[in-house]
Amino acid sequence: MPSFLPQINQNGFQSFFTHFSGAIPDPNANGDIIAPLWTSFNSDLIYYQQVTNGSLLDRATADINSMFPGMHFSASWLFITTWFTASYSTSTGIATFQTVLVSGDEISFLIMNYGGITPTGQPWLSGYLSTSGMYHYMIGEPRPSSLSGSTNVGIPGRWAFRTDGAILGKFFGLVCFSSLFVLPTPIDVLLINVIIFILLNLMISLSLKHFCLHQNDRSELSLLVQLVCLPFSLSHCRNM
């Protein structure tokens, strides 16, 4: 049985299938990486949440259909990660930003939301990469503080991409499983990256056509964390 350790890194990126720990962004990194703001951080807290039902799915559905008209999209799964007031390692200032992975029946999207971001002289990168190098995108802003006002969908501070049908589908067609899905509680990650563990009865799926988190009615799958930051609203983090 294969094992799979996707990671949420304190340095502002998520990686899949390959371990990355570097604080220095690498646009030529050989891996599947989502990097809303890859730079060196002393991240105080990282929040994450999986959503499979409820009003957040309705909100994601409405937002995707607004940004991508005519698709008649209906969201069935979200995975939200928020780096909240992360402090730069080698300069003063903080940054708050978020990724939202959105999947429906046969269509998937990546949303990157940017809140307050102060200037920094550190090396940085914003975009996504794939292992093959065939699918990638770098946001071409001159400085990270510009991300809060930039957009490709007409909403300042938001970038959104359709990702199905590409290697990037691996970001969303993550796993089919029949037993257990385990996440650590996202507490202080100043010294350690948050690692998502998927350890039992795991099959890696590279296709979005049958995107699945088949749950067998397990209540622990509906709410995986106690610290939650709502999507699309970076300024309203709360304790459950």
Automatic annotation (TrEMBL):
One of its GO terms (biological process) is cell-matrix adhesion. The chain crosses the membrane at residues 189-208. It holds the Pfam family NIDO. Keywords: Membrane, Transmembrane, Transmembrane helix. Residues 32-166 form the NIDO domain. This is NIDO domain-containing protein. It comes from Electrophorus electricus (Electric eel).
